[in-house]
Amino acid sequence: MSRPLPVALAQATPHPIDGSISDFAREVEALVADFPEARFVVFPELHLHGTRTPPRQRTAELEASAEPLNGPRSKVLAQLAGDLNIWLVPGSVCERGENGALYNTALAFSPEGRLAAWYRKIFPWRPYEPYRPGDRFVVFDVPGAGRVGFAICYDVWFPEVARHLAWMGAEVIVNPVMTTTSDRAQELVLARANAIVNQVYVVSVNTAAPTGTGRSLVVDPEGRVRVEAGEAPTVLTDVLDLDDVTRVRRYGTAGLNRMWDQFGPADDPLELPLYGGRIDPARWKPADN
What distance in Å separates the CA atoms of residue 40 and residue 201, rounded to the nearest whole number? Predict the structure, then answer.
């Protein structure tokens, strides 16, 4: 049984922070016109917020561009997704929380024209980012395909994020990135590692040169790179068969390793003093979709 998810990943230069949201709408419309079979469209982290100044000097600029989740920006993006009949992930945005705090928040808008999921970055890149950390992992369902989880940029350096998303049933981890520094090479390794150890797809979408370092990619549940970009602006397309996750978990990575079936009913819990908790064999397997 196939569960296809046609994706279009926009490795793009940032939208000007003072640009019109209508300009972004035209950018998305043009992408969909060029790739009409794409049903799931993703842009990089903070794509709508530009990069005029170095990270340490951007706080005031980001504060000024922040909006609440139900603000005018989200309303336009929701209508855009509905009009184009796509799942739209416009990267992440600066969110003004109900407590006045600033969050780096990934958004997913459904083909029905609604905000279907939102996720606040749990691991802001400190000391450079001014955001308050999020407090929960987020997954959402794409009908007919499967379950998707969010991890924003630096989140992937912390294996707890990908592991929790997979445990919550995610079959694809969408990772919007704005990496402008020399550590993109390490991020590519982490994308493959997170895919391998959790048997999930990882979709990492970075900002294009000259602002970012590009090299967006799609990794399959066995850690193979399906497609990878260079540094220039481009659109990566692919069709992810989410049933591959089911296959790999059933038969094993390379036909061998079935990590989610590691424990048996007679195994004792393993204490995890780092977390003040434990691995309970009875709770090890991922959630059913």
Answer: 14
At residue 99, the pLDDT reads 85
DSSP code of residue 76? H
Q: Could you read off the pLDDT of 247-279 as tens digits, one per residue?
A: 999 999 999 999 999 999 999 999 999 998 998
- Alpha helices, DSSP H, located in the chain: 21-34, 59-65, 72-84, 159-167, 184-198, 243-251
Cα angle 109-102-167, degrees, rounded to a multiple of 5: 55
Distance of CA 121 to the CA centre of its chain: 10
DSSP secondary structure letter of residue 53? S
Please state, in angstroms and as integers, the Cα–Cα distance from residue 282 to each residue in 103, 250, 262, 285, following that order. 35, 18, 11, 8
> What separation in angstroms does the CA of 207 have from each of 56, 92, 140, 189?
19, 12, 24, 18
Helix (H) or strand (E) holding 29: helix 21-34
Catalytic residue list: 45, 121, 153
Class of CATH domain 4-283: alpha beta
Scanning 48-150, the segments in alpha helix (DSSP H) are 59-65, 72-84
Cis peptide bond N-terminal to 210, omega within 30 = yes
**3-class state of residue 15 by DSSP:** coil
Phi and psi at 153, nearest 5°, equal 40, -105
The residue ranges of every structural domain in the chain are 4-283
- Identity at 108, one-letter amino acid code: A
Mean pLDDT of 52-58: 60
How many angstroms from the chain centroid is the CA of residue 276? 28
Compute the distance between CA of residue 23 and CA of residue 254 in angstroms, rounded to an integer. Answer: 45
